[in-house]
Amino acid sequence: MVYLHAQIKLFPGKQQDFVKLLNTLMPQLHKHGWKLVGSFSALAGRLNTVVDLWELPDPNALQAVLTDPEFQKHGPTIHDIIEDEVLSVLTKLPIG
Q1: Which of 1, 57, 3, 63 is nearest to 30 (CA)?
Q2: Chain segment 49-80, per-residue pLDDT in tens
Q3: Which of 12, 31, 36, 69 is 20 to 30 A off residue 45, Cα-Cα?
Q4: What does the buried/exposed string (b/e) look like for 25-56 if buried means 16 or more CB atoms within 10 Å of the residue's CB?
Q5: Are 83 and 7 a contacting pair, CB within 8 Å?
Q6: Contact, 91 vs 3, CB < 8 A?
Q7: Of 54, 50, 60, 47, nearest to 85 (Cα)?
Q8: Given this structure, which CATH class describes domain 2-90?
Q9: What SS3 class is residue 91?
Q10: Where are the chain's structural domains?
């Protein structure tokens, strides 16, 4: 099990469009084993920023989604909403 941390900079005024898009993409993401741990919007700090944390079955699940033709159909919409995105694949440390 790995995690995907997505730090997403939205274009101004696009947060509601992002929420709608993510809800539309959920069935495709679930198909690849993605589980949303949480999606968060910044109240302070970098404006128009969203942070998503996903649980993935393995690191290959990221590439599986990015190359899925059904996901790729949403490319133009994604580019209209997201200005910048930083993806990090993480592993859980044995703490606690």
Answers
A1: 57
A2: 999 999 999 999 999 999 999 999 999 999 99
A3: 36
A4: beeebeebbbeeeeeeeeeeeeebbbebebeb
A5: no
A6: yes
A7: 50
A8: alpha beta
A9: coil
A10: 2-90
